[in-house]
Q: What sequence folds into this?
């Protein structure tokens, strides 16, 4: 805002300087030849009228732009301003005469007055049109440059997104170390462990489901089902509850789950924020439970997570690489169309996210 004001002020000062120099140039030349024929006050009044016509014409033709009747409107502007200029010169000359200001603008006849004022008017209008042509050309070039800059930024974002997609695919391939063997082994362990401990066997089953979600291949747009991501969250919470003997104070609320069956999001956004809470949060404080809310409204996902921080955690430590990775991936997948608010306080940490779930929401925003 301040930059805009400074730019406008600078432009005004430049215009004033040019008009002052032009005024001194015209009157200075006369003063050098006829020192007794220069009357600054009366000349200044005529100069103000010239400036009024100059800027009036400029702003009129700029506002007309490329409208359908631009030529007719420009001709009408020239005609109306011409009549205004002649009438204003006449009444200004009368005013100067009545208040007895010295001037050189007196003419011997109406014909001479009209001819001189028309030539002066055409001169002012030609300068005004030249100024408009130059500024309009600069404006077009500036807009073109801005468009090219925005196109380049979009291309860079697309390239980064493609690179991210390739990296995700490579990571997925690295993780696929004979998954059938892995799941068969987990199935065998589950079968053997259930004979001795139902709790341990449930842990193996949850681990197997979590690994399936991790290894699941996203669609061509790099997205997975929102329902699967929610299921992944539930499994992760249950696994940690098993680990801590159901002592974790976690309040999970999922609303409109039936509406999210066909919705998709980029993977591991919700999971990463949850893992951040497990790593840096104090989840065993019953008075300050970790609160997780997920709701789908009008094809938008609203996700919030608030947890108490461990007493030994600093603000910097609770903002790990995972959260930075979330911000980067959101900027690539939902550029200018998502809201992420992170509040990192002394004792509490909150994560609030809003993202669109359909392509039309992406296009319309």
A:
């Amino acid at each position: 805002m301040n930059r805009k004001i400074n730019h406008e002020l600078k432009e005004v000062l430049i215009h004033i300087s040019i008009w002052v120099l032009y005024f001194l140039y015209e009157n200075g030349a006369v003063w050098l030849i006829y020192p007794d024929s220069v009357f600054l006050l009366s000349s200044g009044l005529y100069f103000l009228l010239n400036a009024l016509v100059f800027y009036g014409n400029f702003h009129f033709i700029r506002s007309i732009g490329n409208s359908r009747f631009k030529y007719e409107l420009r001709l009408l502007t020239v005609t109306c301003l011409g009549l205004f200029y002649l009438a204003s010169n006449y009444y200004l000359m009368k005013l100067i005469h009545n208040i007895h200001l010295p001037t050189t603008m007196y003419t011997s006849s109406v014909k001479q007055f009209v001819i001189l004022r028309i030539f002066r008017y055409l001169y002012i209008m030609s300068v005004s049109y030249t100024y408009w042509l130059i500024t309009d050309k600069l404006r077009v070039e500036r807009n073109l440059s801005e468009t090219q800059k925005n196109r380049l930024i979009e291309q860079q974002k697309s390239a980064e997104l493609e690179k991210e997609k390739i990296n995700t695919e490579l990571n997925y391939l690295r993780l696929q170390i004979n998954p059938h063997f892995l799941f068969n082994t987990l199935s065998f362990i589950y079968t053997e462990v259930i004979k001795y401990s139902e709790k341990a066997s449930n842990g193996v089953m949850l681990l197997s489901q979590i690994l399936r979600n991790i290894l699941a291949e996203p669609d061509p747009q790099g997205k997975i089902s929102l329902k699967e991501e929610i299921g992944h969250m539930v499994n992760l919470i249950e696994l940690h509850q098993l680990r801590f003997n159901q002592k974790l104070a976690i309040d999970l609320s999922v609303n409109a789950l039936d509406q999210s069956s066909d919705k998709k999001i980029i993977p591991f956004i919700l999971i990463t924020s949850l893992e951040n809470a497990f790593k840096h949060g104090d989840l065993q404080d019953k008075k300050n439970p970790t609160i997780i809310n997920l709701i789908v409204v009008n094809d938008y996902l609203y996700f919030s997570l608030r947890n108490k921080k461990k007493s030994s955690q600093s603000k910097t430590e609770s903002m790990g690489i995972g959260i930075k990775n979330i911000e980067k991936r959101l900027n690539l997948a939902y550029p200018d169309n998502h809201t992420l608010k992170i509040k990192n306080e002394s004792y509490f940490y909150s994560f609030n996210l809003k993202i669109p779930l359909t392509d039309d929401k992406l296009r319309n925003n």
In short: The first helix runs from residue 2 to 33. Strands lie at 224-225, 250-255, 264-265, 290-297, 300-308, 339-344, 348-356. The two ends are 24 Å apart (CA to CA). Residues 2-155 form one domain.
